[in-house]
Specification:
By secondary structure, the chain is mostly beta strands. The chain contains 5 helices and 28 strands. The radius of gyration is 33 Å and the shape is elongated.
Length: 486
Amino acid sequence: MPAGLYPISGILYNIDGTTAVASATVKIRNENINKTLTETTNSSGQYVFDCGNFKGGWTDGDKITLYVIYQNYDAAITVTIDLTNHPAGREQDLTLIAVVESALRYFTVQEFLDYFQVSAYDDDNANGIKPQTIVKVGQMVEARIDNLTYRKWDDNAGNYYSYTDEYHTAKSMQTVFWLKNTPVNSISRFEVNITATSQKEEWKNIMYLLLDACDATTDWAATTDGAITLNTTNNQVNEGTGALNITKTGGTVNNVTFSKTLSSTFDFTRSDFKLDFYCEDITELVATGSTAVEIRIGSNASNYYSFVFDRTKIGQAAWSTLAIKFDSDDSNASTTGSPDATACDYVAIKITYAASGTTVTVGDMRLDYIRFNNQEDLNIKLESGRVEITNASDFFPEPGKDQVRSTYLQGSSSVDEDIKLLAILMTGKSFAKRTLQRLNISANEVEGLSSAIQNLTVDDEEIKSILKTKSFPPIGNMWKEQAEYY
């Protein structure tokens, strides 16, 4: 066989077909003599092989397979040494494709091969493992880990897993509940059925959600004669670091609307919308019997829910909490236009004054702390999924099945190293068991398998140890707090 130069070169591209992949391991195999060469792509994604480096050389007409495994992707193609049409060598690019439609989440194919020191099928047809098989088994193992631990650790770029209306059975005056999947990223709704189990369900959302702390004037606007400034004087702030001075500075009109369009939409159903309003002198408001203050929440200035107050409902030189109660079947709100209660991003307070000529000293009327529900109703630990109702007697008339439900986002932004190891071990254990059963030989007789995959007993202990520490609740519920009842 010739031992001279016969180059095969190209560029490795990512799945988009245009981005070069650097520092990836590319291999070629001479199928005629079953010999392999390995190179690493440079910073431009380029690889260069010389078939003269094959032990045994090469000859015209030899079949050469190029292949690569990179993370959860691979690529392979076979070319022919052709001195007639390609006397100076072959140019052959590779483009990665997903091993299967849905890649592994907790480990990569290469990490599996490296850990157990086993070969891919393209490296060793007799003893190697196909990447597609690793992925298929690994996906089943990952699903099993999710079920065993009630958790998911994969990096999903902030697109966490959504659980809607996860039901829990409540005992009489139960205070502590555990969400089924952790860690919890955020809870949007924690609802209790406030009617007896024999009656039609009436859900009340008691999850606290801060819409605006009123610590900045950003995105706030006022109609004619209105002005908004930030107040950070400690004894004039009701919550947080600031409040908004909402002031009437001119004499053109007798009412001003102060409003804001929020950066996100919120589901208002079955919740209490609240804001805090301060009035130094209620005589600056329109006379008793007329609407002095109106609060609004909705889709925009033409489509909203509102509730009105005359000045007898407003505290003199004091903070007043103004609320719209919005339950599943009944609301104390009026409706203007066609607002969407499940997607509200507009909040406003309209103030009607004693006369058009009325002006207000800066600081004499203030707005603060716009939110859904009460912060003190729930104590929440997101990492463990623990939710405590501080006063269950306010909500539960009697015990019953599926009396509590929650909507939340769950997931972790990165894969825990223990979980990566657990997934690799459990996948390797699946391969080892079936290989040994098929061959009917003992583990230490399987050539090419590392000690980690040979020693199934050691793997069992390590698997149990990781599961014990990473599941919520841990196996056996050793530390899990028991629900409390009155």
